[in-house]
Amino acid sequence: MSDVDTYRLEWDEHLRVVTAATSLLPTLAHMAQAVCDALGRGGKLIVFGNGGSAADAQHFAGELLGRFRADRRPLPAIALTSDASVVTCIANDFSYEDVFARQVTAHAGPDDVVLGMTTSGRSENVIRGLRAARERGALAIAWTGHDPGPAGEAADLVLAVPSSTTARIQEVHTLAMHTVCVAIDAWVAAGGDAA
Question: What residue spans define the domains of the chain?
């Protein structure tokens, strides 16, 4: 098989998963509205994950703190993966499984949305972070692969990408993130951001 054929298989699989994921648009629209509602009442988005999902968390927070397409004030968002000193302190002093839960307990409140990303649905630190969000009264959202697993059980809302391939799941998570950012820009343009 040539390199081009190998690449084509990857692209074809990506397109199949994205096409199947269009069924998630009503769920994603509900999640986007929840984020806008939180921002409108003075809340924030708290987001986290491991590996590529950690990078996605930082990307998401950056889009809110910076801008996506529209010029606007910075919107409150925290990526719990951004501070290596905090993450390693908690992992060392407590456990790696507690790195998100302790931060969520410190930062989250009833006006906030807490979004944990885990492609497997089984990352214990993400699960504990989502549980902590619910204990704090925040809305807990899990973005997972096709089997939400314990993360789905720990969350109020779940976006379960119809794939078991990590790369495809993360690609749809990135598309979902950008879709939420489009909704936030539209919300700001419509005057939803009165602050």
Answer: 3-189
What pLDDT digit, counting tens, does each position of 70-128 carry? Answer: 889 999 999 999 999 999 999 999 999 999 999 999 999 999 999 999 999 999 999 99
What values do phi and psi take at 71, rounded to 5? -75, 130
Tokens of 90: 């908690």
Report residue 12 as tokens: 């074809």
Cα 187 from Cα 5, distance rounded (Å): 42
Q: Which CATH superfamily is domain 3-189 in?
A: Glucose-6-phosphate isomerase like protein; domain 1 (3.40.50.10490)
Q: What is the pTM of this model?
A: 0.95
CB count in 10 Å sphere of residue 48: 32
CA angle 70, 30, 104 (to 5 degrees): 85
